[in-house]
Design a protein that fits this description.
lipoprotein, G-protein_gamma, cell membrane, flat, G-protein beta-subunit binding, 69 residues, mainly alpha, Guanine nucleotide-binding protein subunit gamma
Length: 69
């Protein structure tokens, strides 16, 4: 689609996108970073990548080995 548009049309679309983005509310990283850190620490106990999956609930556990005879 972008190949069919002229450079002027592409620039116009970019300006429209930038106008939308400038309206987004922004927050200081000092505030949001702390909020993200607090959330991650609070949810760490529920994260299977950190605590692992119990063997009885692991759907990817090997059911049996391969036997070559």
């Amino acid at each position: 689609m972008a190949q069919e548009l002229s450079e002027k049309e592409l620039l116009k679309m970019e300006v429209q996108q930038l106008k939308k983005e400038v309206k987004n509310p922004r927050a200081l990283i000092s505030k949001t970073g702390k909020e993200i850190k607090d959330y991650v620490e609070a949810e760490a106990g529920n994260d299977p990548l950190l605590k692992g999956i119990p063997e009885d609930k692991n759907p990817f556990k090997e059911k049996g080995g391969c036997i070559i005879s």
